[in-house]
Write a structure and sequence with these properties.
This protein has 261 residues and is α+β, with helices and mostly antiparallel strands. The chain has helices at residues 2-20, 23-28, 39-49, 63-95, 105-133, 244-259; strands at 144-151, 154-158, 165-167, 169-173, 177-184, 189-192, 199-202, 208-213, 218-224, 236-242. The chain has 3 domains: 2-49, no CATH class; 63-133, no CATH class; 144-259, Cupredoxins -  blue copper proteins (Immunoglobulin-like). The chain has 6 helices and 10 strands; from the N terminus they run H-H-H-H-H-E-E-E-E-E-E-E-E-E-E-H.
């Protein structure tokens, strides 16, 4: 019987590993529990697997993205607490055995309908404002600036002191802030690199500036976050962060490669 139980638990671990990428098994300690304890991990595995990935805002790399992810987790935690409180109020009468207590209507109105929502929204606003501010360009500082132009259905990136551009790939130096001057040639698009910063609209005739920061060299995936037509889903791009001492040489080589017929 012990051998059968071991095979059964091993099979369940294989299923969870395939669903979530393998690491979740060790993270949840499933190798040390029996099958009867696996119901909750089985339900959590798909959700936890979705927290990572090239386009996951819950797997931040830059400080702005980390701040946004923090706001998301606070909102999730708060919503769960509020949901638990509301469900407790709904179930409370069913477990009371004495006569219900009359609650004045004005109390429900001022506390439940006005006071509580205002407190929650004010707290969320105070928590979220710094996150939004972290994505804005600092007008007083001199920051390396590149240009991003959207057009159905591709992104074109321009760089200082040159007229050459790159298509679909944005090259930036790692370890320093970079301002992206974003506009559009046709319709409204959305510039979004989930692991580095929030998203901002690319609007025809208007330039919006977004600050991103890649702490380490690497490739960060981006996408259009505003529906812009039939090929919207394919309007992807990459942000490649290079070491600062190699950036100029790499950028020159990439621009020369783009310029070749």
């Amino acid at each position: 019987m012990d051998g059968v139980a071991g095979q059964r638990n091993a099979a369940v671990k294989v299923v969870i590993s395939r669903v979530s990428g393998g690491g979740i098994v060790e993270y949840l300690g499933l190798g040390r529990v029996g099958l009867r304890h696996l119901a909750l991990p089985l339900l959590l595995a798909p959700a936890l697997a979705g927290c990572e990935g090239a386009l996951s805002a819950l797997d931040p790399a830059g400080p702005a993205a980390q701040s946004i992810a923090g706001v998301w987790w606070v909102m999730l935690t708060g919503s769960l607490v509020i949901l638990a409180a509301m469900m407790g109020l709904v179930l409370w009468p069913f477990f009371k055995r004495h006569r219900p207590v009359e609650v004045p209507e004005k109390l429900w109105l001022w506390v439940g309908a006005l006071g509580f929502p205002l407190i929650v929204l004010a707290a969320l606003l105070a928590w979220g404002l710094p996150s939004g501010q972290s994505m804005l360009a600092d007008r007083d500082g001199q920051v390396y600036t590149v240009e991003a132009q959207a057009a159905q259905w591709e992104w074109t990136f321009g760089y200082p002191d040159t007229e050459e551009v790159t298509q679909g790939v944005l090259h930036i130096p790692a370890g320093e802030p970079v301002d992206i001057a974003i506009t559009s040639a046709d319709v409204i698009h959305g510039f979004w690199v989930p692991r580095l910063a929030g998203k901002i609209d690319a609007i025809p005739g208007t330039t919006n500036t977004l600050r991103i920061f890649a702490p380490e060299p690497g490739i960060y995936e981006g996408m259009c976050a505003e529906f812009c037509g039939l090929e919207h889903a394919t309007m992807r791009f990459s942000v490649v962060a290079h070491p600062q001492d190699e950036y100029e040489n790499v950028l020159t080589a990439e621009l020369n490669a783009e310029a070749r017929p």
